[in-house]
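Researcher: Structure for this, please.
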Amino acid sequence: MNEPQDTLDLLDYRRDVADLYADARHGGGGAATWSRWRTDRDELFATHPQSALSPERREVFGGLPYFPYDPAWRLEGQVEAVDPGEAIEVGHSGSGTTAFRRFGRVDLEQGGARFSLTLFWLTGYGGGAFLPFRDGTSGTDTYGGGRYLLDTVKGADLGHDGGIVILDFNYAYHPSCVHDSRWSCPLAPPENWLDVEIRAGERL
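Model: Predicted structure, token format:
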């Protein structure tokens, strides 16, 4: 049975993560804002009891690796309506699944490459936007199961303006299962597997 303090620590961790993204939304974008987000995220990983890292790894942690900041990967896209269909069960890195429903699609272009991503909504109480993806770096420079760009349950959200959503891939990050096998995390479903290499964000 979890101790109440464990749950309160998790609440505190999610609050801290939400604060990181709030600072990023109001920081004006650019490399300086991203560097602050990265530094503060490293601090959370190194010190917080609900860090994705085990206590042993926290003791030797020297910071998460990232691709160099690339302003070309800060994109904005119009969210287009999709047929939500039935809720889908997204498989995990370990046991279990999580139910999501499609709520939109974004068409993007960068460096001459065109690609689309599906936005998902968590079907559980309160919901939350979720955008996992795999790309041409998955399985080599980044985790084979993909990375996350939006996960509003945890406060990972760079904002939107009307129907235009900000998708800055410099903020793409690995799920917790990459850092410790005790976590079981939803993986990117096939419709969000991309051929393009996105050399931005967290890497292995």
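Researcher: Any notable elements?
Model: The chain is about 25% helix and 25% strand. Strands lie at 74-80, 88-91, 97-110, 113-122, 129-133, 147-151, 160-161, 164-168.
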